[in-house]
Amino acid sequence: MKLITKLGIFAFVVLLLAAPPTLKSYGIYLFTYWLIYVIATMGLNLTVGYAGQKSLGHAAFFGIGAYTVAIMMQAGISFWLALPTAMLGCFVVGLILGFPALRVQAIYLAFATLGFNTAVWLVLRNEEWLTGGTFGINGIARPNFFGLALDDALPYYYFVLVVTVIMAGLLWGLLASPWGKAFKALRDNPIRAESLGINIQAYTLLSFAIGAVYAGVAGALFASLVQFIEPAPFAVHASILMYLMVVVGGPGYFFGPVVGAAVGVLLPEWLRFAQAWYMFVFGSAVVLLMLWLPDGLLSIPERLRAKRLAREASAARAAAAAAVPTQAQQGAQ
Amino acid sequence: MTAPLLKVTDLQKSYGAIRAVAGVSFEVMPGEIFGVIGPNGSGKTTMFNSVLGQITPEAGSIELNGRDITGLNPRQLNQRGVGRTFQTLQVFGKMTVRDNLIVAAQEHHGSMFSRMFAPGDSGLGGKADALIDQFHIKHVAHKKAGELSYGQQKLVDIAMAFMSDPDLVLLDEPCAGVNPSLVGGISSLLKELNGKQKANGKASSFIVIEHNMDFVMDLCHRIMVMVEGQVMAIGTPDEIRANKQVLDAYLGN
Question: Is residue B55, in this structure, part of any structural domain at all?
Fold first, then answer.
């Protein structure tokens, strides 16, 4: 790792630890909200960025996680039992959603997952006996952490930060193992991957299931953060926004979701000065970004490096040509 | 007499009214380099894809080391020791060359579960580096495979097929689109790999489809000529060169 990268990470960690206490409660809320989206989009980055499965149904898992925790906590069950239940539920449903991906790819898969998201959203909206329908579920408690109350904004923020770091560490470990290479091989060339003995069916299903678990954890934390949930944040538009966060940050870059979720969650707040024009500014920024940086913001260093190498190579060619002027002149005659 | 490594018996496959492969039988011996030539549309690729599990033949059987492998999928075949290269470039473009080689063999080590906790290179780093040296691609080992020149990618593609010590490697036009100076290089690499004993004491066998006649005649121990889905002749390069029927149908004068 280069010194500048290390310094950057160090400064970032200091910011995460030290900034929130200086903020008002809404600022702390936003930081927490952002981290929750980081967790969710880390999972989507695995599915989309590493394994190459175009999923537009991620918000459904976010919703399954949130509602599982909300319903169970309403029934008096502990958050610490509800969280693993939500994770398991998302894993199983994620596996099932993976099956269409064994048959269809690219835009067709996107539509299949989008249909799935709509179906889940309809269940959340229509099954009032379970989900409260459009009235939602309110009064969701915040968890206790070994007797430590997380009711206030700041303790809850640090709790979410710890969970984010743990989830990031687990994903880092998974991607550093041979699994990481298998996922990338599946993304880059499934036919070749299969001819090398890689079980592309299993890795496809697991990329959905593991990605879904991340969304489930994020959803569980989200329910406890906002303490009131209704179907809207789990509709298709949320899936599209999450996909956008992955793409803007840089699909297949480990820290892409950190940047992408900041663009999706924090940037709109900073654009409030634009008032009614905010969506226009945001939309235009995304269009420009896609034109100039189709591989996301984190591809900037790599692009700069490629430019520098190209410059060096052309300088070397020019120098080589200058060193044999007689030949060049002969060629010209 | 040693048993054949691969035994194909009466293979048949049709596409609509066209009989792409109409009863093809041949054997490949351990350590043998077996060439397949024939005009376009003669059924070479259909035969190849049947052996590789890309398509299921309508009739006939394929045996590897005496066991029936007909109808297995490409992954199962690879796990049983069948490797391949592709006619068009099929590397993992966004992974480094070294990672391309490592991922080419990692699924042969341990279970899927144990690989979750295995080191990133699955203990294959040394082997990958050795092949990288042998293929003279050390200077690009840490570049993304998709950024290499066509010839370099072709070398990576071939090297990948050998990472898992396969018993049988099917090479689909290894010289297609490669400049003449590299053709000789590929030929000598394949001879080297064929002569090298693997850890289990056996040598790899190859089946090579190729239109470059000099390359095929120089590299292969035996050659099969296919015409219109059938075997016209099987023999040593000298026998094939001298075969009147083959000369008329394919090689010309």
Answer: yes
